[in-house]
Specification:
The chain is an all-alpha fold and 324 residues long. The protein has two domains: 147 residues, no CATH class; 170 residues. The protein contains ten helices and no strands. Helix 1 packs antiparallel against helix 4 and helix 6 packs antiparallel against helix 7. The longest helix has 30 residues. The chain is flat. It starts with a helix and ends with a helix. The relative contact order is 0.12. The C terminus is likely disordered.
């Protein structure tokens, strides 16, 4: 399982880097750096690197090829080790690896569609949604391979139903907000439709671009309020320590996301801050997703007898002595 944990971790980090770099491709306007040519770039696998937009786009494609290879290796090794405990069956690593490979193929197909339709907003959003799904799947695969949350939750404290609902809502809000942010970046004029912060600035509500920007902001404020409040309540209830830690991380990331959003607007939309803003958005999705998954796993821990015994035995030496 150690090998699978490492492969899952490498795949997850590669997917995270690919999504973040894909956001930079969009922000820098490099999506059509290779024209409408796919998978080659102007007929070359290794084209002359003579334009910045071409360099960014072609390295995005190389990154995608590397990610696909890593996921394929992860799937192959999961299949070869399917007899090991926790690999096959319900909740196993193999199913996550198989799903991740299917999503990689879908993402590659949508990449071609996006190029052929010259980066239309709907194609770009669909491509991003699939990429976010891949990242989510690999995060869960890594958590399964790592045994998170720890089985010590069985003898510590399980999470409440309120936490299950709250973390699920947080993950949904984060995903919708991030996807809406992608639409802001793609829709003409939506990025600069509001010149003030936290309000829009001029107070007008004209045009689709401004409506899209305001919708993204309202969702962001609701997400921040929900995540911070939820984290405070989880800490107050002293719930499972892994869940509490992840809730604190999610709260920190959502505050950081709002800060970068403010700096982006007030600073005149510099490309570096825009990139940091979209990167923390991806991290927010990852942190809320892992939080929701960990909460559910802590609520419904594995019921395998050997696994439960292994988790409980170190905590109950007196019981062992009494039994003897």
């Amino acid at each position: 399982m150690n090998l699978l944990r490492r492969l899952a971790g490498v795949s997850m980090l590669a997917a995270l880097g690919h999504v973040v770099f894909g956001g930079f491709v969009r922000i820098s306007g490099s999506g059509m750096g290779c024209g409408d040519h796919w998978p080659k770039c102007y007929g070359y696998w290794f084209p002359p690197l003579d334009r910045p937009d071409l360099v960014i786009e072609v390295f995005h494609r190389y990154f995608a090829a590397t990610l696909s290879t890593v996921v394929a290796v992860f799937l192959l090794m999961s299949f070869l080790r399917r007899a090991e405990h926790g690999v096959s069956g319900r909740g196993g690593v193999l199913r996550s690896a198989l799903l991740a490979f299917g999503i990689v193929v879908t993402a590659a197909t949508l990449g071609a569609v996006t190029v052929n339709y010259r980066n239309e907003w709907w194609a770009t959003l669909a491509h991003k949604a699939v990429a976010m799904s891949l990242l989510a799947t690999l995060c869960i695969a890594w958590m399964r391979a790592s045994g998170m949350p720890s089985l010590t939750g069985i003898v510590e404290r399980l999470v409440s139903d309120k936490t299950i609902r709250g973390t699920t809502i947080a993950a949904i809000l984060a995903l919708v907000t991030v996807m809406m942010g992608g639409m802001v970046a793609k829709w003409t004029g939506a990025t600069v439709a509001c010149v003030g912060f936290p309000l829009c600035g001029d107070g007008s509500l004209g045009g689709a671009a401004q409506h899209i920007q305001l919708t993204h902001r309202v969702l962001a404020y609701l997400t921040a309020l929900h995540v911070v409040t939820m984290a405070a309540l989880i800490m107050r209830r002293r719930e499972h320590r892994t869940v509490t830690l992840l809730a604190g991380i999610a709260a920190f990331v959502v505050v950081l996301q709002i800060v970068f959003g403010a700096l982006m607007v007030l600073g005149g939309y510099p490309i570096v801050i825009r990139s940091l803003h979209q990167s923390t958005g991806v991290l927010l999705w990852v942190s809320t997703l892992t939080l929701a998954y960990a909460a559910r796993r802590a609520k419904h821990p594995p019921t395998d007898g050997a696994a439960v015994s292994a988790a409980i035995r170190p905590r109950t030496p007196l019981m062992a002595g009494a039994t003897a």
